[in-house]
Design a protein that fits this description.
- The structure is a single chain.
- With 173 residues, the chain is mainly α.
- The chain has helices at 2-6, 12-22, 27-34, 38-44, 48-85, 91-149, 155-172.
- It has a domain at 1-71.
- The longest helix has 59 residues, at 91-149.
């Protein structure tokens, strides 16, 4: 847990409080572990610096737990496959293992598909945002040219022409 906490300026008492909170201790136990009163601990809980440190430590703990789960996933799949394909295993165990494998495979395919669709949408959104910014820039440049070089009596028609030209460019893209 120290990686995240090292980058945040908290004292040793606050660090012990964060570690005790991560361990699930009660406020009284956390305060005792940190060597402070419960009142001080409650005050710390409202300080942005302490909240950031606690959140960073929680995030790191969760990330580490996910890493362990990911590393264990292959072992779990292998165990399920062994049970599902073991002719000596009770039929109910084989069916349960097969169902678990199928369900997890279905979920993995769905997540993969959703991630692919999300990535495509992000690209489209980014490209659209660029297109919109380019169009706005082109329109602003066109209007500036119009306003500088067109006599007052012809401005309205020239502005309409510039808008049509810009909109035609945006639609073509």
């Amino acid at each position: 847990m120290t990686d995240q906490l090292d980058s945040i300026a908290i004292g040793p008492h606050e660090r012990r409080a964060v570690e005790a909170l991560l361990a699930g201790a009660s406020q009284d136990a956390v305060a005792a572990a940190a060597g402070v009163s419960t009142r001080t601990l409650r005050r710390w809980l409202h300080l942005p610096r302490f909240a950031v440190a606690l959140r960073a430590a929680q995030t790191q703990a969760f990330d580490e737990a996910l890493g362990v789960l990911r590393a264990s996933a292959l072992d779990g799949v292998r165990a399920l496959r062994e049970v599902a394909s073991d002719p000596e295993a009770p039929p109910a165990a084989r069916v349960a293992a097969a169902r678990a494998l199928i369900e997890e495979a279905r979920k993995a395919v769905e997540v993969d598909e959703i991630e692919g669709r999300l990535a495509a949408l992000e690209v489209l959104a980014r490209d659209h945002l660029v297109d919109v910014r380019e169009a706005k820039s082109m329109m602003a440049e066109s209007f500036e040219r119009v306003l500088r070089h067109v006599p007052d009596e012809s401005r309205d028609a020239a502005i309409d022409d510039a808008e049509r030209a810009v909109l035609g460019t945006v639609k073509a893209a």
